Amino acid sequence: MQFSNMLTFVSLLMAISFTTKVIAVDSHNSTQPALSKVYIMRQDTHFPKGHMEIYGPDGTVLYRFVNYLQGGVAGYSMTVLSSPSWGELFALESTNDLCGHKTVHKELTHPGSPAREFKINPHGLYKDEWKFSFTDLRSSQRLSFRFDRNYRNKEGKIYARVNGHDGDEVAELKNEHRKDPWLTHDSHSVDTYTLYCTADSPQVELVTLMALVLTRVADCGI
Fold this sequence. Notes:
By secondary structure, the protein is an alpha+beta fold. The chain has helices at about 5-20, 205-220, and strands at about 35-40, 50-55, 60-70, 75-85, 85-95, 105, 115-125, 125-135, 140-150, 155-160, 165-180, 190-195. It has a single domain (about 5-220), classed as LURP1-related (Porin). The chain has a 12-stranded antiparallel sheet.
């Protein structure tokens, strides 16, 4: 199978698996779906294996993330998300990946690509604004989401966007101290950055957002 066809097939599978139901919240519908899916990253942003690992709650490595700057070209970076099963899932390119600057990470597109895009809009002393969007390949609808980051840390909630406004909460990012047996070999807790999300949320995009936030804050501060 040609590489472009493989990427198209993988993108279609991901769209089928992770399409979000975007439902506006109103006074008659206050039921919030459970944030039942969990993804975990270590707070340490070094790359001893050449990438950062994203774990399931049982310690299984579900995704690998790497973000690297192009030497000699200010602001140019590449971000790659891969999985042990599928290999590289997609790559994002940025030409303005600089602290304190508006930054856009855009997917390197190919036939059948959902054209993922992650935007960071810094506001100086105020909290940064994070948004991401992609095209649902089944409906051709453009879906958008916003990360409402806390002012003093990188925790916060993620909402689907409906007509320019926040709809349902689909995920939450938390700083945690965990003692999962697979995570530590002693009694000391390990600092993690943890994603909790609904079962029908766009989980591939959410884990990418999690890793981008973690590395951005590590490099640039809150």
